[in-house]
Amino acid sequence: MSETTPLLRDSAHAHHANGHHTRQHGGSTTFQFLADSSYTPGRDSSNILVRAAAEIWHVTKVTVLSSYVNFLLVMVPLGIVAGRLGWSSTAVFTINFFAIIPLAAVLSFATEEISIPLGETMGGLLNATFGNAVELIVSIVALKDGQIEVVQASMLGSILSNLLLVMGMCFFFGGLVHRGRNGEGTEQVFSAAIAQTTCSLMTLSSASLIIPAALYGVLDQSGSKGKAESILTLSRGTAIILLVLYAMYLFFQLRTHSNLFDAESQNEEGEEEEEEREEAHMGPLAAGVVLVVVTVLVAICADYLVGSIDDIVEQVHISKAFIGLILIPIVGNAAEHVTAVVVAVRDKMDLAMNVAIGSSIQIALGVTPFLVIVGWIIDQPMTLRFETFQTVAFSVSVLVVTYVVQDGKSNYLEGAMCLGLYAIIAVAFYSTPSDAVDVGGIGPHVVSAAKAAIQSS
């Protein structure tokens, strides 16, 4: 553990990543032990206890130093204590809200660490699986608690935040940086084929919400007594179909037509592989342990967060729809948002579009139908019949995004348009009274009938 200990593997890695050995910077053992993410003294010790302790500290150090937002990790134990000791609902909600933000960043980092040695195809599939893990965990907790309105709003909010907020910021900041000279403006270019394919899938998901809403309107107008059971049956059947289509989309993207989605990585293959090697700071096993631990912590914080929502609605007088539509997606997508904007500023628009529209497809065709099936299993009437205003907002957003991306070019004005529409929708949901939106999209007076229909079936 002295400064003369040979470090074959770590010194080779440091030389490869930085061009020379870490000690040539004059770094002390104390600095390496506390703040050097590429090397921790003791990892090559012959003593197994010293080596194990050093490895645990190395993984902890690398994880904590992986993102600038991780200073908020102090909120995690504080949020658990607040929930366990029964602090005020405002304190529990606020502390756990800020606690989930760094946990989401760590979850994203651990997923990237696991995906690096698995190769491009399996790594992409893993990122698709865990990319929206925080929203999925929060939604399952809320669904189990009967907060169907929060679940639906959070799903819609995740889609809209990716389609309008993230993509709008990518277009806006990327367009400003690469706007060209006055009078000779330039536009950023991305794959129009990818944009059209993904927008077609988003239009399909929009139709999957419009059809249940239209059926509910017809049955409600006719005074049918079986509308709750009909909406549940339609939603569950539609959910199964959407999950099959999502599986086909993954096969299309990762196997048969992967060439359409790999344009960016093919153009900069050497650079991307070099960046990936630099980021591999811990092994897949250690990253998997981090992934499991963080998932458990997210579930605990989400439980306290969701449990305080009802009191927050009563005290602050904001709707559950606003909490689900705006606040929860901010928690789950913070790390993804920053990544997308950074790569857009670097003029890597294909990567930015994959983050923005790709995440929206995962939510619309994967996570939301999956939650309908989960509700079916745990006897919660989760349906695809969203509240009318939510359905309209989603459909209009998909329409605007389709028109914006269909030419395969972007500029800062188009980004400002997307951001403006997102702001309008956010203000609309913020101004909506908390008792004006139907619970679970099927109305408060229908929930009991829906549960009765579940039990009878």
From TrEMBL:
GO terms for biological process: intracellular calcium ion homeostasis. Residues 89-254, 289-430 form the Sodium/calcium exchanger membrane region domain. It is a multi-pass membrane protein. The chain crosses the membrane at residues 65-83, 90-110, 122-143, 155-177, 189-219, 231-252, 285-306, 318-335, 355-377, 389-406, 412-430. GO terms for molecular function: calcium:proton antiporter activity. InterPro entries: CaH_exchang, CAX-like, NaCa_Exmemb, NCX_ion-bd_dom_sf. Keywords: Antiport, Calcium, Calcium transport, Ion transport, Membrane, Transmembrane, Transmembrane helix, Transport, Vacuole. Pfam families: Na_Ca_ex. GO terms for cellular component: endomembrane system; fungal-type vacuole membrane. It is found in: Endomembrane system; Vacuole membrane. NCBIfam families: caca2, cax. Belongs to the Ca(2+):cation antiporter (CaCA) (TC 2.A.19) family. Has a role in promoting intracellular calcium ion sequestration via the exchange of calcium ions for hydrogen ions across the vacuolar membrane. Involved also in manganese ion homeostasis via its uptake into the vacuole. This is Vacuolar calcium ion transporter. It comes from [Torrubiella] hemipterigena.
